[in-house]
Amino acid sequence: MDLIKSIRKYFAPSFRAVITQVQQLIETLKIVILQVNNFQSFNIRKPNNVHTALKDGLKFAFLLFTLALISSCDYNRRTTGWQYFDDMVASPAYESYTPNPNFADGKTMQPPVPGTIPRGTVPYAYEKTEEDRALAAATLENPVVFDKKNLDRGKKMYGIYCMQCHGEKGDGQGSLYVSKKYTFPPASLLSEKMLANPEADIYHVITVGQGIMGEHGSMIRPADRWKIAMYVKEVLQN
Ligand code: HEC
Prior knowledge:
This protein is mainly α. It contains ten helices and no strands.
């Protein structure tokens, strides 16, 4: 089994690649034969003047050069073949998903240092609990200005991320639920409770999720979350 494995590994770059290699080999052989013919013709002939000698010398040099070129061809894309000038052709760097002996966990790609946050992001201070939901609703304020452009953006994002469950009107009759592909009833965003809740409440639910609904904070930017909340409040609930 090991033998078969290693043979397969050797020929891994697919059958087509092998054919290409053979075609290349034939092409180079043609060149070699041509050169050898030239070489023979110069062997039989006596160099009768400096000019011919120079020409034949050049031919011989070209033959050597061709042979050197052929021998530097690689066998597959994972090896560099023989290199005459190898500076910076093959990168000694580890690739992201390869094992790495230099780190304790043996991985090349390292996780962020605990406690660090990506540049430009602000950590969300509230958890997926009822208390935090109420706290976020009472504390956070929508920084996005109320205008048609932002409402349109909110509508678009709602159409992408919410409508399939909560429905075009926000009544919870989204296509996923109506077609019974998603069986848990999505909450109506037009309920008495939701009519009373502020935009920040919707922002919170989008960010961390609610009950069975998953978080969307990792998919939707903060500004877009506010625009969705705005759209729900100002358009769907009116
Ligand atoms: C995969 C289906 C699904 C998607 C997509 C989805 N939701 Fe939900 N959502 C639900 C379900 C189901 C509930 C009820 C959760 C529960 O009660 O456990 C819910 C609950 C909510 C609630 C709380 C309602 C209440 O009465 O407390 C809000 C607000 C909400 N969703 C807004 C959104 C918004 C805005 C989006 C788009 C960014 C969205 N949801 C995307 C399924 C979904």
